[in-house]
Amino acid sequence: MCQQSSAAREEPVRGHPRGEGHELPVGRLDGEVYRGRIELESLATATRATLEANGWRHISTTKTSQHGINQVYEKGGTSLQVLLWENWIFTYAEYTTARVLQAPR
Fold this sequence. Notes:
- By secondary structure, this protein is mainly β.
- It has a single domain, classed as Sirohaem synthase, central domain (Double Stranded RNA Binding Domain), CATH 3.30.160.110.
- Helix content is about 15%, strand content about 50%.
């Protein structure tokens, strides 16, 4: 039996402004930020595999030393941006979704 260590678990970052949804004239924007202790590349690989297994279509991935890893997905008219970065202590994962509610005129 495999046991997940507490160091590998992600936890929500409390008080982060991304935790609330925002209505826009043409859509809705929602987001969450989590932090944990896991190697950045492992998190990126696991995130992509999990999202694709749940029907999200991978659009692109970019990596920079300054900003970490940015993954973009699409599913049923909703886009998902995943930002992954790390500092000396934690690895962060920010998930932001946007959905178009009406076509622009």
